[in-house]
Amino acid sequence: MSIAATFEIEFLQYLDADGKLVRDDLPAIARDIRQLVDLYKQMLFVRVFDGKAVALQRTGKLGTYASCLGHEAAHVAIGSAMQEDDVFAPMYREYGAQFHRGVKPREVLLYWGGDERGSNFSGPAHDFAWCVPIATQCLHAAGSALAFKVRKEPRVAVTVVGDGGSSKGDFYGAINVAGAMQLPLVAVIVNNQWAISVPRTMQTGAKTLAQKGIAAGLECLQVDGNDLVAMRAAMDHAIKRARHGHGGMVIEAVTYRLSDHTTADDARRYRPDDEVKAAWQREPLKRMKAYLMSLNAWTEKEDEDWKAECAAKVDIEVNAYLETKSQPTAAMFDYTWAELPSDLAAQREAVLREDTRHA
Amino acid sequence: MPQITLIEAVTQALAHEMKNDPSVVVLGEDVGVNGGVFRATVGLQEKFGAERVIDTPLDELTIAGLTVGLAAQGMKPVAEAQFEGFIYPMMEHIACHAARLRTRTRGRMSCPAVFRAPWGGGIRAPEHHSEANEHLFTNIPGLRVVLPSSPGRAYGLLLAAIRDPDPVIFLEPKRIYRQYKEEVTDDGEALPLDVCFVLRDGSDVTLVTWGAQVKETLEAADALAGEGISAEVIDVATLKPLDFDTIHESVRKTGRCVIVHEAPRTAGFGAEIAARLAEHAMYDLVAPVERVTGYDTHIPLYRLEMKYLPSVERIVAAVKRTLAAS
Hints:
Chain A: Heterodimer of an alpha and a beta chain. Chain A: InterPro entries: Alpha-ketoacid_DH_E1_comp, DH_E1, PdhA/BkdA, THDP-binding. Chain A: Its EC number is 1.2.4.1. Chain A: It is an enzyme of class 1 (oxidoreductase). The complex is a heterodimer of chains A (359) and B (326). The relative contact order of chain A is 0.15. In chain A, helix 7 links the parallel strand 3 and strand 4. Chain A contains 14 helices and eight strands. Chain A is globular, with a radius of gyration of 21 Å. In chain A, helix 2 crosses helix 12 and helix 5 packs across helix 12. Chain A is α/β, with parallel strands linked by helices and 359 residues long. Chain A has a six-stranded parallel beta sheet with strand order 1-7-8-4-3-2, with helices on both faces. In chain A, strands 5-6 form a two-stranded antiparallel ribbon. Chain A has two domains: 317 residues, 3-Layer(aba) Sandwich (Rossmann fold); 32 residues. In chain A, 47% of the residues lie in helices and 9% in strands. In chain B, helix 3 packs parallel to helix 4. Chains A and B meet through helix 6, helix 7 and helix 14 of A and helix 3, helix 4 and helix 5 of B.
């Protein structure tokens, strides 16, 4: 018997759980201390925002909310590695990436607060909004990448999917067509170990999720998703090769969902406390802070000051959200088509007449 | 002036608009080198290149998702489902994304895409190649649903569908792809996407239909004329949004309505038309509305399929019932 194909999946990590360097071939980003501090500050901002959003839901001021607790390194790395005219197709908890792209925290709150205007956000107008039907966004990113290829634009489409989402046909379809057509697509599987209550081991018999890209003919890499340096290095590499016409890539970011799936979920029903406790030891902010402090680039005092500043910034966003009045009833009709068909216009008028009568 | 078939009119419209608008791309299975299994895209790849006439991997889900992505980024994709029975994997992208993108982003994004599919039965095709399921799309807000029944209407409506800023489901009655030829000038003139076509004037009964059943319905009108019964025939080529005014106006004149479609009866689109007649035209009617439709079964394999599809005899019999009732 001869060998038809072989493959191996590399695992990339620069910072261990304690913030110590585990290799010395450092990428450019690791030497840019100012930027690392800035990215760390963004991670901390996202964490403060996230905690506040959960608190808003618990006090009845926000609808169901999907927390990003524990994903900050992966998300901030993705957002900061992209250029503005690249296209981002997220799932529904990548706030860290989206803030970097100009989406406002108040818009995130508006979306989960039951208002479509949240998705008409301040980020790039070509970025996709939050995508609840699991993994469908992967194909929208692939379609965007196809548009860039047809128009010969040096742009890249980046999408995020979960470990559960990587079981879906949409994910496979997206990476498959990216391989077949050499599309500038970067698909990041944020493997947080849990798809609501179903653990990673029940999603697939494959040893890594990254290797799914092998079958599509893409370059694949598994990364410590809690290590900002590794995540950013991986993203820089993937985006650069995609932009230069070398095709797509699958990155598996290994992390952990420290929160419930959403505020409507109670993870204590299905996963052991010990596992969560152990995951907190590996979380992304702790190690980044330790690394920056070891470089004398950050102090405990700066950390406390920045946290307080984040809380103040978040409060401004929360107030802006809470003060946003509901859309008029007509809004539910007005964007269904570019031009309202006459029978729908009649339905709209009837509702508005009712509104006036009850006003 | 060249005489062309309905399928050739589809090709002509695609070629016209690809030439007219560089953002139009065609994608699907076998649409490129092979020119489509029905030859709807024949010659397009030679003319416009493989980058704009795109053979995709064999996955309808992929075709639909790519289409949404392309359209969201400013292209005008025309996607082909090889047969209507293969469109089901596309449904999530059509319903949750294409139809919804404009409203869920409050107009920031939109999806100017066309999803084409050869539709309906009657060509002795294998299983899953003969479905009529337009009603699954007419209930989805944000979609237009178009079903042409002549070469001229196929040309004008497909041009309009591609130019429309919102997603359009464009279903092509494959039984009459090559039924007859007519003159279609390649002048780039689009037809309106919200107006019914009155194909024949009449005074005793209004026959409302669409797709391949236009053929049987017109034949039934001929047969009825031989018996002194005057039937008006309306082709609802643009199902959604529905031009109910044209139907209502006709029923006001005739007082009778028979709706003919090949999809299953229960919750078929005929039910919507009948409901609107009940709401708005009750006092214009002198007889109950009749429906001549496919049965509430799956369309049978081809030995029985003509038993399933509405026939001239069934239409004539329904008309006679409405006449007997008043």
